[in-house]
Design brief:
Helix content is 2%, strand content 41%. The radius of gyration is 17 Å and the shape is globular. The protein has one domain: Neuraminidase. By secondary structure, it is an all-beta fold. The structure holds calcium ion (2 copies). One calcium ion binds at residues 56, 77, 79, 83-84, 86.
């Protein structure tokens, strides 16, 4: 995971690139980085295989426009390290809040998980949040995208619970504190998941 900063006009501002993953250089795969920034605060998240073949999600943060970074990166998925493949992370940030969503196979088929920080990436939630609301691991929920507008955060993904993929969404209207009990489908028919009504 290497970052190079450019000023407008393309003039490089750093004499060397910077490695953002704090695992030993070249020791394991850190892949598919995503980046978001608000003012001088820059967030980078990626999938990381330092704990084995099943990737976890790691993040690093700069508070000075990419000049310096945390000495130790942060793992955002909160099950056991390397216990389930966590991939395809996406980031969105506003103010001092940053949200990361990814798909995660800890329970079988991938589900959509989220973690967030309200203090510019310094601290994150001790437990990540599953956003797809059918039974955990029962059907593929993958390839999330995330957007923020004011206090509303929307995460969308492709979901195979009913056969071919639908596009589903979950929404927070309070800055990420609470989310819908039932995600909604692209046909605009919000319906309570039968798995929330019965034991999965
Ligand atoms: Ca994981
Ligand atoms: Ca699922």
């Amino acid at each position: 995971m290497v970052l190079v900063a450019f000023a407008p006009g393309g003039i490089a501002q750093m004499s060397t690139d910077v490695r953002l993953n704090s695992s030993p250089a070249g020791s394991s795969a850190s892949e598919v980085p995503k980046i978001a920034a608000v003012g001088p605060t820059v967030y980078v998240a990626w999938a990381d295989r330092r704990h084995g073949p099943l990737s976890d999600i790691y993040c690093n943060v700069s508070h000075d426009s990419g000049t310096t970074w945390r000495a130790t990166d942060i793992r955002l998925d909160t099950d056991g390290p390397g216990a389930g493949a966590s991939e395809r992370v996406q980031l969105a940030a506003t103010g001092d809040s940053v949200f990361a969503a990814w798909d995660d196979a800890r329970d079988g088929a991938p589900d959509i998980y989220l973690n967030y920080s309200l203090d510019a990436g310094v601290t994150w939630q001790p437990s990540d949040i599953r956003l797809d609301t059918d039974c955990a691991g029962a059907a593929i929920s993958a390839v999330p995208q995330i957007a923020i507008s004011g206090d509303s955060i929307v995460v969308v993904w492709e979901d195979y619970r009913d056969g071919q993929a639908d596009i589903r969404a979950n929404v927070s209207s309070d800055g990420g504190l609470t989310w819908l009990d039932a995600d909604s489908v692209s046909t605009a028919t919000t319906r309570a998941s039968p798995c929330r009504a019965r034991r999965c």
